[in-house]
UniProtKB/TrEMBL annotation:
<keyword id="KW-0949">S-adenosyl-L-methionine</keyword>
<keyword id="KW-0808">Transferase</keyword>
<dbReference type="GO" id="GO:0005739">
    <property type="term" value="C:mitochondrion"/>
</dbReference>
<dbReference type="GO" id="GO:0008425">
    <property type="term" value="F:2-methoxy-6-polyprenyl-1,4-benzoquinol methyltransferase activity"/>
</dbReference>
<protein>
    <submittedName>
        <fullName>2-methoxy-6-polyprenyl-1,4-benzoquinol methylase, mitochondrial</fullName>
    </submittedName>
</protein>
<dbReference type="Pfam" id="PF01209">
    <property type="entry name" value="Ubie_methyltran"/>
</dbReference>
<dbReference type="InterPro" id="IPR004033">
    <property type="entry name" value="UbiE/COQ5_MeTrFase"/>
</dbReference>
<dbReference type="InterPro" id="IPR023576">
    <property type="entry name" value="UbiE/COQ5_MeTrFase_CS"/>
</dbReference>
<dbReference type="GO" id="GO:0032259">
    <property type="term" value="P:methylation"/>
</dbReference>
<keyword id="KW-0489">Methyltransferase</keyword>
């Protein structure tokens, strides 16, 4: 019997810094394009660790830092010049798109974020850059 047949997924929306789940009650924890917008990243990581069972996996997909120097220059130009202008043109909201760009820059670089995941107690922490680091997937296990 496969995992999908054995158990059901529960989708919840809530405060990532104060989850309403019991300790050691989850097999997996995912967050996508959200952790850079929380007030206290460390609290979110601590909560993820708290609710995961032993053997549970943490996965985070987030906009990140481009690591290749030439691509970084192009991406910075695109991010700070094009994205806010398109946001103003299409949505009439330059400020929200400027916030998006600035929130990406404030988010810790991949290695620093990986060390924060380790500091929360996770093991076998690793990350994979996608599109040269525009997006990164971080993972860790609670062992």
């Amino acid at each position: 019997m496969g995992l999908g047949e054995e158990r059901s997924l529960i989708w919840k929306e809530g405060d990532a810094e104060a989850l309403s789940f019991q300790d050691n009650s989850m097999d997996g924890y995912t967050i996508a394009f959200g952790i850079r917008n929380v007030t206290h990243i460390e609290k979110v990581l601590d909560e993820a660790y708290r609710v995961l069972r032993r053997g549970g996996r943490f996965l985070c997909l987030e906009l990140s830092h481009v690591e290749a120097p030439v691509f970084k220059e192009l991406y910075d130009y695109y991010s700070f010049s094009i994205i806010p202008a398109v946001g103003e043109l299409v949505a009439g909201d330059r400020e929200s798109y400027q916030y998006l760009v600035e929130s990406i820059r404030r988010f810790p670089p991949q290695e620093k974020f990986a060390s924060m995941i380790v500091d929360a107690g996770f093991e076998k922490v690793e990350y994979e850059n996608l599109v040269g680091g525009v997006v990164a997937i971080h993972s860790g296990l609670k062992l």
